[in-house]
């Protein structure tokens, strides 16, 4: 069983979305800036495929709160199990879907067969699950579509790990543990007997079969990377006021519900995997939630294993998670005025390098690619400073989804910028201008819609800065470099030698010449024009600012030095600022908290209805 | 409690299952349906998902009844006619099948639907659907499968290899629309013959000598030849009576004193002669209509064409055709009134007051609703009795449907189709005394069979089916002592 396509209309933050899933992958990491409706996509899948008999919808679930248009979620599911393929299920209502995700009335040799599950919610808020087929070639109506009942949806088994995961760590009719048990034993009898006995004698009364099953869960939970349990077994959970009593998983005397959220989520995934024998679709919102990086990495490796689940959909905001994934795993979600665009990044090999070194870029809306550490540090300082703006209507770069990354040298950064542009990120490229090879490539970046910030006149950063400084300014620059040198005590001596080696004056106390005080250099016959050349060359070649924190200091120097507030440097800095803070077309989505955020808490945390349906009731 | 399978029957079923795909050839009354149901039971017990297909609706109901007796639920074993199953396959996939089946299927297009279903079932995707739906398929009355239906079954066999077919080539008489496949060359090559020793089980509790005779002597005689009836030693229960100069023979045979609980079938050659005979027998024997209901279609077509001022006449004529005991409602006087659309004022017809009142109301107020009312009312006339009650009731149901649709006569034939669809799906109303043709009683059993004129049954398969309907007695009437048996055409019959 495999989801081939997902269409969403009018649901929460999504006015319309159509995602055709690539057939060759089973693991999908949805990424995108905040409010890009990633979680809504998971919720849509979950609701369309839920095995609960009904789901509560509210007016706020409608896009923009507008109940005049129905919520419509369609999920094309292929590779159906025999029970669903049979004529008494959907064998007489199969649609076809081709490799590109186009669906048709009937499958022929160019199509896979599938059932398109349609969840429809009108203003009456009563959800209807039914099969959908596009019209036949002759346009004739198929008549009423067959409804898709909870028992059918249970066979499709989409499972979401969220706050309700605790429910699955108890034995109840609908929980993963309950289903797991029902496949092995006569559930009702076992659970009824066990629950009844549990009320009397707690864990002693649990059948050997149930205990054995707990051990199996323990083994799988440990494989999936949760905590190591000493002795996983069924026990009586007295934390609930439920009169029927509740069997739950315990480690020794401690109910699993008392473990950290990360552990509970992993245990929930493990029971689900066991219950459905690798046939289920797993949905994990914020996969990193509650997990240390090493457990997160282990979990991702486990989930990408093709056998564990038929398909896995996760969302993440974790650079650590991204670093351990490949571009082909990533699905970019963007939402512009309700139109959500979902697309796989594909597999350009070079993006792999970007993910490994700068995963945060993929979590952004706009990437500032900096040629090297100097530029990266400068931009970090710039944005830190600019973000303190308190004027009304100002939106910080973080809120705009801007992420600055350290590039890969001149031509390397251009390549990254180009590839990020190709997968539709906004890109601002900040480069030196002293490399002819790089400069030759820049028009290509601009042609793809990137913004390039570079110094006028084919010069490096240090040269650009120095060319606008007088002697005092040059001295101040040297002092700034001294401050951030690894050893500020010896830095003046080291810098003096470096300057002297490039034509700076030797120390001459008699003539009042100080090698690191440029205002004294005229005493040695070096005019300010020569001094600019010497200082910029030394700063550049001796790498005074070629570390991120040093670049930050240079950035500070640029913003704080009056001579740099006008002229070419100021112009480039202003261009950079404008590019970073440019308002995207979807700016309004950023400013107003989305409906999704406003309602997610209210609907998602509701207790699953099966709690009252404990076996034996 | 469902019937338990006898060891012998269970062994037969298991033997059949073990050789699938295979065919079983069994003469009439040897327990073919019994074996089929037992096979389904054994399969169901093993958790199999079974599809049973048959040819006619009569056969469908016989199988359902037998399955129920054996405790096989509809969830374990689905039963359908080949045509209905073909429609169910073709309807959802018009592109794959190349046929669009309308909401109410047109049975004249059945061949088209079957061809469409074959194309659908041949698709790789639908083959998987079939394989997911069924583990075993059993097809009864296989001798009646046309070439198209045979191709459909083969397309199912490609998906569900465990297919068994049961039939008797000697009982094939439905080859009047389409060519039948050659049993030896086309059926047995796909479904190798599984030999079972046939026992004349049907006659065990009725007339064993008759069973032995039908299975032995009769079966051997069934090939083109001259067949004598006079001076032949028949087993007990079989009699021949030459009717030359013995006009009332059929009436005396029909009225012969038989226990009420025992069923009697009179076989005639044609529908018109059957209805005439039914009328003469005064309603004691009921006409069995064919599923398509041609008689009813003609009557309703006449109603559609009729102006309201002819409604009374239309009902008068229908009453004449469907009921007996209407001599008092004479043509020259009474009918003439309604031809002229005048009431019966001034006429006195004792015992027929309700009928005259019904016709008169139509003269005064010719509505469809009054037709429905009148059809009920005139039956209360003392002496009037329906012999074609099946036709009468379905025509009335169709008119009722037209009233419900807002007095829309254009829906009459659709409404009739619905009523006939019920016959298809729920079976015929049970009748103990029936007049019918060989074609309509295939697969049915009666205690006593009267063949109205043996000279009308000169085709091998027709005669064999006519003779083998009887469990206790056969009365053969004939205007000749001898007939020339001819082969039954297996292809298009003019």
Automatic annotation (TrEMBL), chain A:
Record region (Disordered): 586-617
Parts of the chain that traverse the membrane: none
For molecular function, the Gene Ontology terms on record are:
ATP binding; ATP hydrolysis activity
Bias (Acidic residues) ranges: 604-617
ATPase AAA-type core domain: which residues? 28-321
User: Pfam families, alphabetically?
Assistant: AAA_21 (PF13304)
Domain of life, per UniProt, equals Bacteria
Which InterPro entries does the protein's record reference? Answer: ATPase_AAA_core, Bact_Antivir_Def_Nuclease, P-loop_NTPase
**Stated name of the protein:** AAA family ATPase
Ranked from the top, the taxonomy reads:
Bacteria, Bacillati, Actinomycetota, Actinomycetes, Propionibacteriales
From TrEMBL, chain B:
Entry annotated with the keyword Secreted: no
Tell me where on the tree of life, at the top rank, the source sits. Bacteria
Q: Which GO terms describe its molecular function?
A: 3'-5' DNA helicase activity; ATP binding; DNA binding; hydrolase activity
Q: Domain UvrD-like helicase ATP-binding, which positions?
A: 112-178
Q: Which SUPFAM superfamilies match?
A: P-loop containing nucleoside triphosphate hydrolases
Q: Which UniProt keywords apply?
A: ATP-binding, Helicase, Hydrolase, Nucleotide-binding
Biological processes, Gene Ontology terms: recombinational repair
> Per the record's keyword annotation, is Magnesium included, yes or no?
no
Instruction: Identify this protein by name.
Output: UvrD-like helicase ATP-binding domain-containing protein
Recorded source organism is Nocardioides silvaticus
What phylogenetic lineage does the species belong to? Bacteria, Bacillati, Actinomycetota, Actinomycetes, Propionibacteriales
